[in-house]
């Protein structure tokens, strides 16, 4: 495989996707939609609890009514008790609340005195402190991985070339959230941290093979060394990712909305992680190695 020869192509593909996501953020903000589609957990909202008093279907009966009246494309609707429903949306005014309840009242012939159990504003469940802690966890884990890989391979270039693709994967996932307006909720933080932990595995496998082949490779033939090492590990990397993707994809198509919101970023992250392990990490190591040689020449 000509991984190194076409490295500029791989880098360009990633840069285009990341830039598209970054550009979509201010565009969304200018249009009044926010840089990202933050869910109720991040920005707070309104919760309404209603006793339906009969069987109902959330996806086909409740959700369309809520979306139409509130304009919130991603309301959180769950069952409350045997025949009750809890509806969480972005903040809505009293007039909209009344309109929503009246629509449910007419649809299910509710008793206006007893069936509206509760309606109130709620604060964000994901605080600024929690967001900062998640960023700290991401930063600390990246630094520790950088140190560990550098010590294990006895070469800082391996460590840096392994950690930078993790940042690449995070930005790719952010680009998808920005462009596709995927709701950003508590699943987002868990998914990002999971992706970082998963993505590093394939990279280490490739780097291990590079280190082994380096002992017998022709001196100075870095391109041949990397292309050979990637070719020897690419089938394993792709098969591992496909196996994981099958499971996560089934969760996405068959799971409830909360599971789908967690599965989607994982799908994107796994694809991005496999791509970066093969087409980004090794070319980065090549660039760092080449620059080091040029400085000492």
From TrEMBL:
Pfam families: SecD_SecF_C. It comes from the Bacteria. Keywords: Cell membrane, Membrane, Protein transport, Translocation, Transmembrane, Transmembrane helix, Transport. InterPro entries: SecD/SecF_arch_bac (IPR022813), SecD/SecF_bac (IPR022645), SecD_SecF_C (IPR048634), SecD_SecF_C_bact (IPR055344), SecF_bac (IPR005665). Coiled coil: none annotated. Residues 116-290 form the Protein export membrane protein SecD/SecF C-terminal domain. The keyword Metal-binding does not apply. It is found in: Cell membrane. Signal peptide: none annotated. The chain crosses the membrane at residues 9-31, 134-151, 158-180, 186-207, 238-256, 262-286. Part of the Sec protein translocase complex. Interacts with the SecYEG preprotein conducting channel. SecDF uses the proton motive force (PMF) to complete protein translocation after the ATP-dependent function of SecA. NCBIfam families: 2A0604s01, transloc_SecF. Belongs to the SecD/SecF family. SecF subfamily. This is Protein-export membrane protein SecF. It comes from Defluviitalea saccharophila. The gene is secF.
